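Translate sequence into structure tokens.
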Amino acid sequence: MPNYLDAHHRHSILQLQATWTARSEWPTWLLLLGITGGWWTVITLTPSIGRVLTLLLLIPLITLWMSLQHELLHGHPTHWRAVNKLLGYAPLAIWYPYTLYRDSHLAHHRDETITVPQHDPESRYLDAQTWSGSAGLGRALHWLNKTLIGRLGVGPALALAGLAKEQCTRLVRGDRQAWLMWTTHLACVAVLFWFITRHGVPVVDYLLASVLALALSMVRSYYEHRPADAPEQRSVLNEAGWPWRWLFLNLNLHLVHHDLPGLPWYYLPRVYRERRADWLQRSGHFLVNGYSELFRNYAVRPVDSPLHPRSASASA
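Result follows.
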């Protein structure tokens, strides 16, 4: 429990964690059954509903699956790491092995290094050396990636290219853990492809749905963090509408999650509402009034620079 919380706030959170809902984690279990059951139903009904509707339904289901995997790696719905890994290992989103996502995301939770290139695995910023070594086209793509429309368009390609470069380096180096992880993951992907093609879903359709789901998830991460001197002022409080909140399992309240990573997704809004003014003060008023505000203001305008300010000042 963070030491900045006062006694009343601590007591309120401990009461939530002691409820039957929190102890049983039934909302997360229900969500797990709903997503996997929905995915199975959509795939098996493809001959009846057609490829286009299948694609349209798979996009939010895969996005929700990625949000659920995030809950699993943070210790929900069980406290057993191996059990949660088993529950979330299915490669419904294709691109990221569960183990890789878990380890890199937990490393991202070192709040003192959030946004810092080469230290934060989820940083969307570049250091001075990488920036100076980028050609004109590379810089243009990174600037485009700082607009919301650009993030939807080129964000998945940049993310997957970075993933391929990093992981190929590990494999060429002979990293045993990487070889085991990718061999297992690709075997599971092969089984998934076999299953979907048996029910009339072409692999190319599924890959397209997965790329579009990855792009949709990047709406959440687009302005989730910003550089700031104080680590607690680097994570956003986005007061999003209910469709986005459900799709992202309340991770729009990102500072609350970073401060209380063990708090389940369904309690984040309550904890935020109880002390909204305190959370806003703690965040340095890093507040966004819903994702529509981001679309209005930054659809075609960069939200900030791809070059991390710490690197920019160091190279000045």
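Note: The CA atoms of residues 224 and 278 lie 19 Å apart.
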